[in-house]
Structures are given as structure tokens and as C-alpha cells.
Design a protein that fits this description.
alpha/beta, Rossmann fold, 2 domains, 7-stranded parallel β-sheet, 5-stranded parallel β-sheet, 12 strands
């Protein structure tokens, strides 16, 4: 049994494959593989570990219908045609729960960087503009006692809420399809309408999956409902917010600032106006970028591969319905 890996993954995953007697081919070169190249390699292997491979659509799974398992080196799977994989009988695995804290910390980092204008002030030093400042210049906001609004209070959103509650006693509002009773009990979180969350929150942080329902859910109307001192944070998927509407909201002063770890498209072009704004911070999708988190992701991916090649149920399946076929 052989598995193809389209990027370099941490050794923890490779060691598990070796211990299980599974051979692997790992693409170590740049540039990254396009869809046709990935198909070529997959055709010579029994399984596939995909670290952000593009083009995993119905045609990909039709051409690679022999694959016994595809393990995603990620939690998100919005770029994968899950229905097509299921139709071909291919189980898809992901890496849930291992990056909850790392992603929540990224949201927190964005929040503080925007609130204190830290990146903007760093750029002023680079430009030789660190001079004598007036007491009213370049001021940010404290977080103590402010209100955090979480859209999608799942594991990552709840972790961020816990950090903000414990560190700054922030009030927690959230908008979900269902109640998070544990967060209500432990953090005093209140489930509110989207309109109330937007109008009452000092920081709005998005932690929802990208679906047909959430695509573009933050647009002109939503930004207009936010406080003029409000901060918008998105560490979920770039498609959740309308970038042009966000730019206009920042330019007009409808909101005070924005912090993004995700953009649409990715990567963001270097000429994007958000990169030059005083009140905007953009990270290159670093939500899972810690040594510990990436190692755990590799472990999950390897465990999915090992189970799939043994004909066993994946420990972290995205499409468990494939076993009902």
C-alpha cells in the first residue's frame, strides 16, 4: 500500500505511516502541484494526503476512483466535493479539534493588533516616523469590560470566548443555529439575533464554516449595523465576508477596524488596499501555524490513512455516510 502526500508534512505523521508499513511519496518541490499533476501521482498510489490541494472536484474523484481513502491535512473541507467522493465510495478524513486553541489565539492576536494599531505603528517606525507624539495620537482601545460577539460559537469560538472572559471579563454574545448551553453556563454567554450581536458588540469574531448559507453573510448591511468603534475579525473562511463591502466600511468609518486571517481569494494580492490601511491587519492564514498543531494535524491525517488502507472506519471521517453504501 502506498500513499501520496502533496506537500511536506510534519514527521509525526510520516513516522506513523512507517510504523504501519505504509510506503509514501511526498512532493517536496516548488511550485505546488496543480490538479492534473496531483491526479497523475494519485493514480500510482492507493491513498492521498492532501495538504490544501486544489481541484478536488467530481472529475478528480472520477479519475481517482481507485483511492481507498483521502486524508485532508486540515479541518476545513469546503474545497472538496464530498458528495462526489462519497459517490465513488471514497472516505474523506479531516483533522478536527486539534487546532481549536491555535486558531482562537490567532483571532485574539488579530483583535489586539487591530485594537492597539500595533502593525500600523510598527510600519511608522520602518518609515522613520517614530517622533514626538501628542497624547491624543494613535490611540487604541482597551478590551476590559467590552463585548465580544461570536458568530458560530463552536469549539474555536468558545475557546476565544473563554480567553476573553477570563482575561478581560468581556461580555459574550453569540449567534448560532442552536444553543451552546455549556458556554451559557460557564461564560454567561447570551444567544442573540444577528442584528443585536452586530449592534451591541465591540468585537465581532467569525467562526462559521463556509456554506451556501454563510457565503457573503457579512456585507454592506452587516457592517452598517456594527458600532463605529467596532472591530471585525475573521479566522474562518474568506468567502464569509464581502471584501469590497469591508473596504468601504473601513474607509467610511462605519467600523473602526478589521483583522483577517482569511481572504478571498487566497493568497491576497500585494496591491490590496487593506494592506495599507491604518485600521486593518491581514495574516496569511496562520490559524494552525504552530509546531504542535501541525504535528497533531499530521497525526490525524496518518491515522485516517492507516484505518482507510486497512478497510476500517476512519477515526475522523467527513463523510461517514460512505459506510452506508
Amino acid at each position: 500500500m502506498k500513499v501520496f502526500i502533496n506537500k511536506i508534512i510534519p514527521s509525526k505523521g510520516l513516522e506513523l505511516l512507517e510504523e504501519a508499513g505504509i510506503a509514501y511519496t511526498m512532493w517536496k518541490e516548488k511550485p505546488v502541484l496543480d490538479r492534473e499533476q496531483a491526479i497523475y501521482f494519485c493514480k500510482g498510489h492507493d491513498a492521498f494526503i492532501s495538504a490544501g490541494q486544489s481541484g478536488l472536484n467530481a472529475d478528480f474523484f472520477a479519475q481517482c476512483s481507485h483511492l481507498k481513502v483521502v486524508a485532508l491535512h486540515s479541518v476545513g473541507f469546503d474545497g472538496v466535493d464530498i458528495a462526489a467522493a462519497t459517490k465513488q465510495g471514497i472516505p474523506i478524513g479531516n483533522t478536527p479539534n486539534v487546532l481549536n486553541r491555535a486558531t482562537a489565539e490567532t483571532a485574539l492576536l488579530l483583535m489586539l493588533t487591530v485594537a492597539r494599531k500595533a502593525l500600523y505603528l510598527h510600519k511608522k517606525i520602518q518609515k522613520g516616523e517614530w517622533g514626538v507624539a501628542q497624547p491624543t495620537e494613535d490611540l487604541g482601545f482597551d478590551m476590559v469590560g467590552k463585548t465580544l460577539g461570536v458568530v458560530g460559537l463552536g469549539r474555536i469560538g468558545a475557546e476565544l470566548a473563554r480567553m476573553c472572559k477570563q482575561s478581560w471579563n468581556m461580555e459574550i454574545l453569540y449567534h448560532n443555529r442552536s444553543r451552546n448551553e455549556q458556554a451559557e453556563r460557564d461564560l454567561g454567554a447570551r444567544k442573540v439575533s444577528m442584528e443585536e450581536l452586530l449592534s451591541q458588540s465591540d468585537v465581532v469574531s467569525v467562526h462559521t464554516a463556509l456554506t451556501s448559507e454563510t457565503k457573503g453573510m457579512f456585507g454592506k448591511k452587516e457592517f452598517e449595523l456594527m458600532k463605529p468603534t467596532g472591530i471585525f475579525i475573521n479566522t474562518s473562511r474568506g468567502g464569509v465576508h464581502d471584501e469590497q463591502a469591508l473596504i468601504q466600511a473601513l474607509e467610511k468609518g462605519e467600523i473602526w477596524g478589521a483583522g483577517l486571517d482569511v481572504t478571498n481569494p487566497e493568497p491576497m494580492q500585494p496591491g490590496n488596499p487593506l494592506l495599507e490601511m491604518e485600521n486593518a491587519v491581514v495574516f496569511p492564514h496562520i490559524g494552525s501555524s504552530t509546531v504542535e498543531t501541525r504535528a497533531e494535524m499530521a497525526r490525524c491525517a496518518a491515522e485516517n490513512i492507516i484505518a482507510g488502507l486497512k478497510g476500517e472506519r476512519l477515526p475522523y471521517p467527513v463523510n461517514p455516510e460512505v459506510y452506508d453504501r
